[in-house]
Write a structure and sequence with these properties.
globular, 507 residues, mainly alpha
Amino acid sequence: MSIRYIRHTNRPPCSDDLSNAHQNILSTLQTEARHVQNQRAKSRTGSVYVGITGAAMMAHHLSTHPLPGLAPADLLTFADARLADALNLSPTSLSSPKSGSHSSFLETAVGIATLILIRAMESASTAELENGVVTNITCLGDSWTACAQLVRSATKLVASEDRWRDADDDSGCEVLYGRAGLLYALLRLRDASRRATNAKFNASESDLETTVSALSSDDTILLLVQSIIRRGEAGAAAYAAELAGRIPAPPPLMWSWYGKRYIGAAHGVAGILHILLLCPAHIIRPYMGSILRTVEWLIGCQDAHGNWPSAAPRLSDYDGTTSSGKELVQWCHGASGVLLLLCTVLRCATPASPAALLEKVITSVQAAAALVYRHGLLAKGIGLCHGVAGSVFALIAVSDVLDRARSADNNKIKGVISNGAPRGDGGSYYLVRAVHLAQLAAGHKSLITRGEMRVPDHPWSLYEGLAGMCCAWAEVLRRLGAEEGRQFERSGMPGFDDVEGDSWASW
């Protein structure tokens, strides 16, 4: 088996070294963000995942957290130009999905449409704001109307499939291609609509605001949630039957993708549950019991090293005749993606949360985070999906919940971690590990030259390449420069963990 990660010292920077790390990462980000902007994608795809729309999303992401040498207005101008390029790739750039199984934000035209609608909303609602970050998006014309129609048709397609096709089919719900990916798009639109609540719109802009609000309404989001849950229940019943009662508590939710029951964030249970938990509390609350029991089952699948197999255990695994591979430590498959889900579960915890489950989640997070730090300098590259950026975002998420809890007063999570958490780190135990991986990734060119790291197929893209790492560097810098006690709602991973909702479900 080839080595999937690059060994490092496992010695994160101490507090005295963080200033140098900050400057190194900032300098690298300034240079590499310009490199991404100067590249013309060879790919003829406009997808967010590896296409030119991903570069637009990177620029938009960077514009929301102003950093020296990265002017928000310039970044937004670039983002709008790339979105216009995506529209002009082919006559089918805004083709409506033909199946709910292929209607996601990351891999279909839904992503292009969603980002154009968000930019249209921002342009209309920021005209009178004091920061002066207003850009001319005439390059996008009135394309927002076609974009709205595309998203609307995608949600209608899901509804029609549930009525007229086999609604008990447990496939096509994953994040990368399927219904959970479409649900993410609706949640991003809802976030944009929420931010524009107090804006002053003229007559034409009011049509835009009304349209986006309707696209992301409670009814529309509930439709997607119910479709995903219903299919998950059907999949769980089929999975339990396959296991023939060999395990005492099979999960109440399970999905498949092309016949395989994946666990990870891209195609599997962890990613789907994560997106469901980003939904407004009043919509997802009726399903929290099933979600939490599935999370508990997921924790039970974790191995002694802190990782998860790519797929759910089969009957032969329980018989001991086969062994599912557990060597992948990535966002798409393995601990990095599952960590983002578990950190979202911890964000939803309250003083009334069952102590036993809370302790299970925290113990699982600590084991997985230790593994991601050790094995997170991935040989496949620096992207989000199966590269270092995914590892960095996983550790950022852990830092946001556990480092913050360690330094907080009257925090229930603090009580659980107090006996086993490392001390003497100034409340930044996991953050400095994210910083370390981010700093190591700044030397990616040397790693490639030495043959330790591969060049991905799409080296400038968001999910395979440099654009995704730029977003990770920016989030690391954001936390290094944050005021003490600052709380972050999400890790900020674009396309997966960057929705700031109006209310979160609790347990």
